[in-house]
Amino acid sequence: MKDLIYSNRVYELRRDLGISQDRMAADLDISRRTISKIENGEQNPSLDMVYRIAAYFNRMIPDVFPLAKEIHLASFEEYSKK
Predict the structure, then answer these.
(1) In CATH terms, is domain 10-80 a member of 3.90.1200.10?
(2) Distances (CA, A) of 51 to 38, 75, 76, 80
(3) What span, in angstroms and rounded, lies between the C-alpha atoms of 8 and 60?
(4) What is the per-residue DSSP string for 14-77?
(5) pLDDT tens, residue by residue, 43-59
(6) Which of 25, 32, 51, 80 has its Cβ near the most Cβ atoms within 10 Å?
(7) Could you report the per-residue pLDDT of 15-47, keeping only the tens digit for each?
(8) What gap in Å lies between CA 45 and CA 6, rounded to an integer?
(9) Is 6 helix (H, G, I), strand (E, B) or coil?
(10) How far is residue 21's CA from residue 35's CA, in Å, rounded to a whole number?
(11) For residues 24 and 32, what is the distance between their CA atoms, to the nearest angstrom?
(12) pTM across the whole model
């Protein structure tokens, strides 16, 4: 994962349902490459996409995109300078 605040369970949820990247991409009207990059932590999905992916799996957002590490407000400014 590349310096993300959030991790994701997209691969795990997709695999458990037996859905291919191609099918998920078609269902969400995005590219398969985008699905791959999100699963591998190479790309952060937009807020709209976060909602759409959570709805796709019929899950709450934190169930699909849990915090990878805790960021406190005091350290947010320092974190965001990276």
Answers:
(1) no
(2) 14, 27, 23, 23
(3) 12
(4) HHHHT--HHHHHHHHTS-HHHHHHHHTTSSPPPHHHHHHHHHHTT--HHHHS-BSS---HHHHH
(5) 989 999 999 999 999 99
(6) 25
(7) 999 999 999 999 999 999 999 999 998 998 999
(8) 11
(9) strand
(10) 6
(11) 8
(12) 0.76
Q: Residue type for 44, please?
A: N
Q: Which 3 state secondary structure label does DSSP give 82?
A: coil
Residue type, 82: K
Please name every residue paired with 67 in a beta bridge, in sequence order, or none if there are none.
6
Burial zone of 57 (CB within 10 Å; 0-12 exposed, 13-18 middle, 19+ buried): middle
Give the C-alpha separation, 65 to 10, whole Å.
Answer: 8
Three-state SS at 5: coil
